Amino acid sequence: MENKSTKAKKNIDKNKQQKEDTILNHIEISVAESEKRANGTLNLREFYTVYLIETKLTDSEFQNRFPKVTTVWRRYTEFEQLRGYLEVTYPYIVLPPLPEKRVMFGWQKISSDTFDPNFVDRRRAGLENFLLRLASHPVLSWDKHFVEFLQQEDDWRESYKSNENKLKALNLSMRLRNSDPRFDAIKDYSHIFQTNLNNLLKARSRVAEKQYNVHKLHANYGRVFSEWSAVEKDMGDALQKTGHYLDSLASSIDAGLEDEELLADQLKEYLFFANSLQNVCKNYEYHQLQLEGAEDNVASKNVERNKAQQGKTGLMSRLFGAVDTDEVRELKVNLLDQQIQEGAAAVNTSKTSLNEFSTKALTDIERFQNQKVYDLRETLTSYAFLQLKTAKKGLQTWIQIRDCLQNIP
């Protein structure tokens, strides 16, 4: 069973065949290892984990832009900072997600300890996959801060801080008069997609829990048969083999579950991708809201201008019959004309911004959908073959156990 990093690299090789150039055509990227380090005495957390990013130049024509080999250590929080920056800078892109921060959809054997070696290694593979996703994207891969993230261990943070935007999520409750049905459909799809993956991962964790219990049961039976073989001398050989086969079956189940966990990580990535898709839709709604706000402002100024032209500017005028002089009326109308012109310019700017965003977003969503279909087909096909392999192994073992028991005198 190939691990997550290997699968990602295969998908990246496929992307290299596309016309658009990316940074991954010129360098190799890997998260080679992890290391547990101690915090300072005043820190609430005693330890933290860092990950070693290695980049290697593969295109000699890029020697002036990349050193031959670069290594930098990064914490998970730094990966979060990088993604936060990209989320604000490229609101129209379906950003690759980071691996889970804590164990989701686990079962009995999966430790919830974030320092557990298996969890750390799975996160290492997930972080490598995240970097490969960025490096294979035709826009994200050339971002200045992303390149610095790969190369500058100490200077990147300061460089990022000096250029960072306010990383605020759009938590507005937006009610739009006019909404693009294309984005409405994408938003609805993202929620259905997320729900289906959520249910699939929950069901898989329940099945894994049952399989693990079977694993423990077979392991106990293997021990019992091995101990029994020492007592029953005439049946010793057959019992010993039976115990061995039961141990083998238990190990096979355990190995299958470990392989399944890697496939589950690939499904979790797309569970988190659904959030990225929803964020793009939220960003579209924000642009649409800006346009509608600008249009409302112009409409309001036009109403004011008509009233000012008639000299009816407010409640006091209607109550006491006060009427503006021609000079005052002209000044008010001229001021409102200027504000209407500025508002019309703001409407045009908002329309241009919305159209540019929509074009870029729909293009990237199409790229994402093609990538999703390819990846999920690979993952689910691998899952089916894994189940077939495990079932065949189990059938073979049970046949061997039956033959052993039949040969008992």
Distance between the termini: 41 Å
What gross morphology would you assign? elongated
- Kindly state the number of beta strands: 3
Q: Treating each run of at least 4 consecutive H or I residues as one helix, how many helices? A: 9
Mean pLDDT, nearest integer? 83
Summarize the helix and strand pattern as letters.
HEEEHHHHHHHH
Largest sheet: 3 strands, antiparallel
Low-pLDDT stretches: 165-170
Structural class: mainly alpha
What percentage of the residues does DSSP assign to strands (E)? 5-15%
**In which range does the helix fraction lie?**
55-70%
**Main sheet: strand order:** 1-2-3
User: What's the alpha carbon Rg, rounded to whole Å?
Assistant: 31 Å
In terms of quaternary structure, the protein is single chain
SSE layout and pairing:
Blueprint (H helix, E strand, L loop, with lengths): L3 H13 L10 E12 L8 E11 L11 E7 H14 L27 H19 L8 H8 L3 H9 L17 H51 L4 H75 L4 H6 L5 H81 L3
Antiparallel strand pairs: 1-2, 2-3
Helix pairs in contact: 1-3, 4-5, 6-7, 7-9
